[in-house]
Design brief:
alpha/beta; Aminopeptidase; seven-stranded mixed sheet; 41% helix
């Protein structure tokens, strides 16, 4: 395993991108990239990169995502590069008739600028709602105190005052859901899910359609950081509409971890992809690695939201060799487990 410095953002976005592409090509992968999502801190073009490993006649596809939440992608990118150093997994997938897709830097702006959101301040894992449905927002029961909290989410002092005033008045789970579940009222605030589908989602859909169109089953492993115990994995299923019996059976085969979030995200990415490709059987899993206690992570999100320069990298990619080694080990093990389950 590479050391921490060699895998960190110290060498820049282009270093991670180029290393990912080089490794994928060495294994015979087909590479493509998106159009630019802007410029990075060093003036570099920020693109999503895709590595396809196709198997003729395959009906199943395994997709691995890094960087949906931008800055969290530094670990996901590192795990992807470690996977691509082990050629036996690609060979095993091909032998078993499984396509592999790696999406590197889903949110390239956020990864390069060390922020969870894209350039429009949209949280891409809250952007999966069907915004063409005029009734989509009416499905969420909203109380006045929640609106007030959302409207304060770009003003830290006011936010903390409003949040703390609700302690003891409303159940903690409802408060956590209101804060972190996603809001669609304040475009300047944290956890903003947007008013329309973002270009990053549409770009990924266009690219993966080349492989998954006409197939049967798609399994997604989406890597995140920031939530949970330091260096420990949470593994849980993302929301999908109208799960069928086969989907429920797969849940039993890939059990969630003992840790799970205190909230559920509104507008998860999984909803968008299931809606775009309704003919496919989807299984969408979140792999989340803990960094710091939730109040501190929330504090950093609010603080970073106040500035236009680089965000707080260490909040989501701690400067800890133990953390990197432990999370990478779990990331590789989970990739192997999911792949083995698909080919069993």
């Amino acid at each position: 395993m590479k050391d921490l410095q060699a895998s960190s953002p110290s060498e820049g976005f282009m270093s991670a991108k180029n290393e990912f592409c080089k490794m994928a090509l060495a294994l015979g992968g087909e590479l493509t990239q998106s159009s630019s999502f802007g410029k990075g801190p060093n003036g570099e073009d920020l693109t999503q990169d895709f590595a396809f490993f196709r198997t003729p006649g395959a009906t199943r596809t395994f997709m691995h995502f890094s960087g949906v939440h931008g800055v969290e992608g530094w670990l996901g990118s590192h795990i992807q590069r470690q996977i691509l150093q082990q050629s036996e997994w690609v060979a095993k997938a091909k032998t078993a008739g499984v396509n592999l897709i790696f999406v590197h830097a889903f949110n390239p702006y956020g990864m390069a600028w060390q922020r969870r959101v894209n350039s429009a301040n949209v949280d891409l894992n809250r952007n999966g709602l069907d915004f063409s449905d005029p009734l989509v927002m009416t499905r969420f029961a909203v109380q006045p105190w929640q609106v007030g909290l959302w409207e304060s989410m770009h003003t830290p002092a006011l936010f903390w005052k409003k949040a703390l005033s609700q302690l003891g008045k409303v159940p903690f789970g409802l408060l956590a859901q209101t804060i972190a579940g996603g809001q669609f009222h304040n475009p300047r605030g944290i956890f903003f899910g947007g008013f329309s589908t973002q270009a990053e989602l549409q770009s990924v859909a266009r690219q993966i359609q080349k492989v998954i169109a006409g197939k049967k089953e798609v399994v997604v492993l989406d890597v995140h950081t920031g939530l949970g115990k330091f260096g420990q994995e949470m593994f849980f299923r993302a929301a999908l509409p109208d799960r069928n019996p086969a989907d429920q059976n797969r849940k039993a085969e890939l059990p969630a971890s003992s840790q799970e979030p205190h909230y559920s995200a509104r507008g998860e990415l999984s909803l968008y992809f299931a809606r775009e490709f309704p003919e496919l059987e989807w299984s969408y899993w979140i792999q989340e690695f803990g960094t710091w206690p939730a109040p501190y992570v929330l504090y950093r999100l609010l603080k970073d939201n106040q500035h236009s320069n680089l965000g707080s990298l260490s909040t989501f990619f701690p400067k800890s060799q133990w953390w990197l080694e432990n999370t990478t080990k779990q990331g590789l093990a989970r990739f192997a487990t999911v792949l083995e389950q698909m080919i069993a």
